[in-house]
Structures are given as C-alpha cells and as structure tokens.
Amino acid sequence: MSTPTLDCLATLIGFDTTSRNSNLECIDWARAHLEAYGARTRMDWSADRRKANMLATFGEGPGGMVLSGHVDVVPVDGQAWTSDPFTASIRDGRVYGRGACDMKGYDAVVLSHAPRYAAAALAQPIHIALTYDEELGCLGIPHLIAAMQAWGVHPGGCIVGEPTSMRVVSAHKGGRVYRCRVTGRAAHSSLTPTAVNAIEAAAVLIARIREIATRERELGMRVPGFDVPFTTISTNIVEGGIGSNIVPAAAAFLCDYRYVPGFDPDAIIDELTALAATLSQEMRAIGPETGIAFERISAIPALAPNEDSAVHALALDLLADKTVEQVSYGTEAGFFQAYGVPSIVCGPGSIAQAHKADEYVALDQLAACDRFIEAVVARLSA
Predict the structure, then answer these.
(1) Are strands 250-259 and 174-183 parallel, antiparallel or unpaired?
(2) Does the active-site annotation cover 72?
C-alpha cells in the first residue's frame, strides 16, 4: 500500500465532517490537491453554501469513469473510542478513525492517485466525485447529478467505493423514509365525541403498515441474492399525546421501507395516502381543521444488477476476489444508475466496521484498492 494513500487518509480523517458540520474545509483541501495535478474541478453548493459536492476531471472527451465517494461521516457521540476518532491511528495492521472504513479509505486511495491520472495517456476521462450528506439519506448526490447533467457530463461507468471488502456489489435495495403528521382536535377525555384523536388515526395507518409488511413477507416479490429477498417496511418513531386525560390533537410517526430492485416504490406510499384521504374525510366531519399529511424525508433508488455493463466486467476482470454480492443497504450508486450511468459498488473495508467505535480499515484492504485503481487507470489509458 502506498504512503500517499496513508497520508491522504490521515488528512481526511483529521477533518471532522460529521454530517451536521460543514464539509468545506475537507472539500477545499481535496480540490487544491487535485488541481495541483491539473484536474478541472466543478463545485455544486448546498443551498446555504455550508457544504459542497465536487466533481474533478482528468482527461477529455465523453464517457469515462467516475470514482465516487462521500466525505461526511456519522457522529461519534456516546461511543467509547480507544483513540481520538479524528486522528488516524495505525495499529495491528489497521487504520483506525472515524470514516476510515465508511468511506474515507476509498476516498484516500482515489485522491492519492492524482499523479497517476495526470501522467496517464487517458483515452477517456476519469471523474472524481465527492459528495455531502450521504449519511443523512443521500441528500447531496441528487444535486450533483443535476449539476452533472447541466454541465453535460455523462460518464460511461461509475464505481462507488462503499466498503465491500473489495468485492463487487452489483445490486442493492432502494429506500424511502416518510414522516406522517396527523392533526386532530383536542378535548377533555370525557368529551371524546367532540374530539378527533390524532393518535388513533395514526394507529390505523401504522396498522396498515404492519399489514403491508406481512403481505410483502408472505406474498411479495422475491429477488434472490439478498439476505432479506423481499421488500420490508416498519414504523420506527412515534410521537403524540400530552396527558392521560386529553384527547391528543397531534401525532406523528416515521416509517422506513427498503424495496428490492423491480418493486414500484410508489405503490406503498400511494396505498397509505389513499387510506389517509379516507381517514381525513371522516375526521373533517367532526373538525374541518384536521387532516393527515405525509412528507418524504429521503429516497434512495435501488441499484439493479447489470452484469452486461462494461464497468461490471472491468471490475470482475481486475479484482482478485470474483465474488458478486447484493446488499440490503442503499448507496449513491442507485442515483448514478438512474442517471443512466452503469454502476457498481466496490471499496475497501467491511460494512460491519462502519459507524462503530474504533472504526477501522485494514491495511491490506487499502493495498488491494490501490492495486485496483491503478489497474482501472491502466485500462482507461491509450
């Protein structure tokens, strides 16, 4: 494994890019690093300009390969770390630090190879994409995709470097999170006929969510290769009520569903909003100010397998481990595929180490990723 990779990783870990923070110091460093080797960089800012996506390009022409990673990390709050999470620590053949595995290890490999990109006689361009707020539900990548479309950048393939132990992940589930807010009418609990109980209306919807979950588990579409080969849905946060003798005027809940490739993600929310419309009509017969509203918090497209794509064939040809996997978590690869860019997920480290105290990436995984990126550059060169 190269010293430049370790140097880049130490620098990246040193930036506290927890999603609640700005990522600009990290992005500015990466931008300056790549521009020093001749990259053309383009920025896509968040609305408040506290964060940014960056696309850097080596080479000219259409197509090419995008090497994509996010720079935000999850919080360390409440975790018992052996060493400073924002200082890279090398011990026992591993690099420890927040984001070492998810996914600054891959980012470091990609950035450390800037001199190689600059020196290569590239037959097609190499694009490096760094994004914000992936850990909040892939909030930054849709804006980068829109910017790439406006810039006229449409790569021929994409490798998203989430930790896969340097194996190809060809498919993953999509995901959506919705918040439902129920507005009722409060009253003393002795006067329930005059009230609209927001919690009870929410409970009807939550019961339907459970029915949908059971239906998908027992009868739903099956996609072999996933640990859970069907679409799942669950209610994970519920709020409501202020007193035991007050009919509640407000309730809210969050539901999350993870759907297999090929499943229509609108089908579930359409069913829930249809039920909500019926309930709202009943509620408004008592209180016209009442109602139910769903808000989409996040949406991650599924990644469908595309084993005939050039990027899939390239990765399998270059990797020592020929295993192809499908996973239930989501990544930014689904967004690139939806943009028409054939995509895979492949990066150093194990997802089992992500988000934990003493997060780490093994040195041999970084070395394998180094060799992989070197080989990718060679294949893209004339």
Answers:
(1) antiparallel
(2) yes
d(CA 53, CA 5): 21
Calculate mean pLDDT across residues 338-367.
97
pTM over 0.70: yes
Buried b (16+ CB within 10 A) or exposed e, 88-106: bbeeeebbbbbbbbbbbbb
Question: Is cis: bond before 166, omega within 30 of 0?
Answer: no
Over residues 169-190, mean pLDDT: 97
Q: At what angle do helices 266-284 and 198-219 cross, to 10 degrees?
A: 150
List pLDDT tens digits, range 223-277: 999 999 999 999 999 999 999 999 999 999 999 999 999 999 999 999 999 999 9
In the chain, the domains with their CATH numbers are 3-172+302-380 (3.40.630.10), 174-300 (3.30.70.360)
Helix (H) or strand (E) holding 103, with range, is: none
Query: Of the listed 44, 72, 102, 359, which one is catalytic?
Result: 72
User: What CA–CA distances, in Å, run from 124 to 39, 145, 375, 376?
Assistant: 14, 20, 14, 11
Give the pLDDT band of residue 372 (cuts 50, 70, 90): very high
134 classed as catalytic: yes
- Residues 6 or more apart whose CB falls under 8 angstroms from that of 304 comprise 171, 261, 262, 337
Phi, psi of 81 (to 5 degrees): -90, 145
**Annotated active-site residue in 134, 135, 162, 200:** 134
